[in-house]
Amino acid sequence: MELWFTEKQTPYLEFSCKVAATLHREKTPYQDLAVIDTFAYGRMLVLDGIVQTTVKDEFIYHEMITHVALNTHPAPREVLIIGGGDGGTLREVVKHPRVERATMVEIDERVIAASREYLPELSVAFDHPKANVVIDDGIKYVAGCRNQYDVIIIDSTDPVGPAQGLFRADFYRNTFEALKEDGLFVAQTESPLFDGELVRRIFSDVRSIFPVARLYITVIPTYPGGLWTFTMGSKRYDPCGIAFEDIPSYETRFYTPAVHRAAFVLPRFVEELLEAR
User: Fold this and answer.
1) pTM for this one?
2) What pLDDT does residue 5 have?
């Protein structure tokens, strides 16, 4: 008998993978958590029936949410990650030679535990000397910070359940206050094809709070539509104006200076989403 996992990505769109094995499943205090092994994408982390990451394509997402921001800031010594319980973003952050400390705040410790056991490729940095893993509500954590971080990375799930507050203007205002005077933040901000109004609203909110607001894109095969957005708010530095000869060299599989530049070249329909009404 064939077994398939199907994610209902929208009311009219589904994504399916043939399952080799179900490795883990539990109901945590916050969400349904599963790790499955698939023939097409390898091991896959699923929360509330939604694919979070796979060992096949995770490096694209994790490199693009981290290195664009880290290489925009000239001295990203103190970095905060909100969410990211699979560990992939933390793994990428600690690679950067100018990062001195990376604090990851994850609300659900069971995601971390499952990732340690079943996703070792992603979770390798949990015990890194630069890493500080905190189990807490990221929204409350950010609200309690002032002038503390050079870079903040919002590696959240979709805007449902405990992650809803991470997509609101008051959270972005608190993020502004938590950053140092030249700090910046980046967040994953969903699909421009299926979440256009959300992309528009988030960019408008960030643009009203930060002196520099930029949106960039990449392609992530397992996410709805494949095309994905990230939104950056910066107090000083423009990711489109950095000197690439000054950025340090370290190993990546997807991110390069050329990819960094190209990510900000937006298709016309995405540009139209960002135009002020």
Assistant:
1) 0.96
2) 95
Give me the residue label for tokens 């319980």: 85
Q: How confident is the model at residue 214 (pLDDT cuts 50, 70, 90)?
A: very high
What is the CATH topology of the domain spanning 58-274? Rossmann fold (3.40.50)
Q: Is 13 helix (H, G, I), strand (E, B) or coil?
A: strand
For domain 4-52, the CATH class is mainly beta
Percent of the chain surpassing pLDDT 90? 90
Q: Write out the E strands in the chain.
A: 4-10, 13-27, 32-38, 42-47, 50-54, 78-83, 101-106, 131-135, 149-155, 179-188, 212-219, 227-234
Tokens 């502004």 identify what position?
176
Start-end of H helices in the chain:
58-72, 88-95, 109-118, 120-123, 138-143, 169-178, 196-209, 257-263, 268-274
86, 108, 155, 158: the catalytic one is 155
* Token reading at 108: 């659900």
CB atoms within 10 A of CB 276: 7
**Phi and psi at residue 19, to the nearest 5°:** -95, 130
**Where are the chain's structural domains?**
4-52, 58-274
Torsion-angle region of 64 (φ positive above 0: left; ψ -120 to 50: alpha; else: beta):
alpha
- As a whole number of angstroms, the distance between CA 105 and CA 80 comes to 8
Catalytic, 155? Answer yes
Report the first-to-last Cα separation within the chain, whole angstroms: 53
pLDDT at 208 over 90: yes
